[in-house]
Specification:
Helix content: 25-40%
Oligomer: single chain
Subcellular location: Peroxisome matrix
Largest sheet: 9 strands, mixed
InterPro entries: D-amino_acid_oxidase_CS (IPR006181), DAO (IPR023209), FAD-dep_OxRdtase (IPR006076)
Organism: Sander lucioperca
Bound molecules: flavin-adenine dinucleotide
Shape: globular
GO cellular component, one term: peroxisomal matrix
Distance between the termini: 11 Å
CATH architecture of the largest domain: 3-Layer(aba) Sandwich
Radius of gyration: 20 Å
Number of domains: 2
Family: Belongs to the DAMOX/DASOX family.
CATH class of the largest domain: Alpha Beta
């Protein structure tokens, strides 16, 4: 008989990573993952899934490095195993290029990706509008494959899944002992967090199998990411924009900007358009709190607000959330159940 009942809310890359970490590490807990939307209908499903990050302003650098390093090493092991095709995780090499020399020429994650170096002048010649570039090998994690693969691992570890929209965390108090909130943008209403907001991103999938290297403009708005079945080209970063439908003007702009970086994109067939809302926050929220729900103090572990870097940081923040769940297990009144 499992003595502690844990519920993870959210079936995106953050929810499933966290649920797998908990179910595998704490076999005496029964773990249920509950969400309104599952793959292929989450934000995570459409992410390009390149491992790469920007710095969050108020999180100690050592903690951000840990998140990146744990995620990178976890996915690298998958990319180099027989699970790689099924999990949709692969190594990818390419360039990040800048019109002007960036303030931070050696970002914090450069020590974890493979072979990070400054591009040579002769390499930069193919990008005449850019003056500086970084070459490296990182990971591409395609969530349309990775999420079903995580779900399989979760069920194998004894986890259960329920599809349901929650209007309030109060709906959970009679059935569970610990709530883990990985609801992304849903946290705005579910836990009343006004610091979380959408950053709209539109991308296209194009058929261009001749492209093997990623190209990303350092401004973060234009990128070409070759994947397993197609090439993702993007994008947009529209803060506070909740529109989920594709915008014709955005499509045109994406194709024009990407063709400037790689002329052959203008000849590529567009296979699909997709829009997602990045669950953004000044800093991701990975912390625990005791919440009063119907007169009862309920431990809630939050793990959301990863913005444009959720795939990159999922495993690292999931491990930290697991640590917070362990802490909840050692605190009263939960102890009485053990
Ligand atoms: C165009 C684009 C490109 C991107 N590219 C990259 C990239 O290259 N690399 C990278 O690292 N990241 C990238 N991202 C960011 C990444 O997609 C997100 O950071 C990540 O998907 C967030 O995952 P999540 O699990 O927090 O949220 P989601 O995937 O949105 O999942 C949230 C889950 O919570 C559930 N939920 C919410 N509210 C409720 C409720 N009330 N009741 C029940 N369930 C609820 C939802 O149904 C869903 O299952 C990109 C994003 C976009 C839009």
């Amino acid at each position: 008989m499992k003595s502690v009942r844990v519920v993870v809310v959210g079936a995106g890359v953050i929810g499933f990573s966290t649920a797998v970490c908990i179910a595998e590490a704490l076999p005496f807990c029964s773990v249920t993952l509950l969400a309104e939307k599952f793959s292929p209908d989450t934000t995570s499903d459409g992410a390009a899934g390149i491992l790469f990050a920007a710095e969050f302003p108020d999180i100690p650098m050592e903690r951000q490095k840990r998140w990146f390093k744990y995620s990178f090493n976890h996915l690298l092991a998958i990319a180099q195993s027989k699970h790689s095709p099924e999990a949709g995780v692969m190594l990818t090499s390419g360039w990040q290029i800048f019109r002007d020399i960036p303030a931070d020429k050696k970002p914090f994650w450069s020590e974890f990706v493979i072979g990070f170096r400054v591009m040579t002048d002769s390499e930069l010649k193919r990008f005449p509008d850019h003056t500086f570039g970084q070459a490296f090998t990182t990971i591409k994690c395609e969530c349309s494959s990775y999420l079903p693969w995580l779900e399989k691992s979760f069920r194998k570890a004894g986890g259960q899944v329920e599809q349901r929209k929650l209007d309030s965390l109060e709906e959970l108090i009679n059935s569970y002992d610990i709530i883990v909130n990985c609801s992304g943008l849903g946290s705005k209403t579910l836990v009343g967090d006004n610091k979380v907001y959408p950053v709209r991103g539109q991308v296209l999938k194009v058929e261009a199998p001749w492209l093997k290297h990623f190209i990303r403009d350092g401004d973060g708005k234009t990128y070409i990411y070759p994947g397993i079945h197609s090439v993702t080209v993007g994008g947009t970063r529209q803060e506070g924009d909740w529109r989920l439908q594709a915008d014709e003007g955005d499509t045109k702009g994406i194709l024009e900007r990407c063709s400037e970086l790689e002329l052959s994109i203008s000849k590529a067939k567009v296979l699909s358009e997709w829009v997602g809302l990045r669950p953004s926050r000044r800093n991701p929220r990975v912390e625990k709190e005791l919440v009063w729900l119907q007169g009862r103090r309920m431990p809630v572990v939050h793990n959301y607000g990863h913005g444009g870097w959720g795939v990159t940081l999922a495993w690292g923040t999931a491990l930290e959330a697991l640590g917070l769940v362990r802490q909840c297990l050692h605190e009263t009144p939960l102890q009485a159940n053990l």
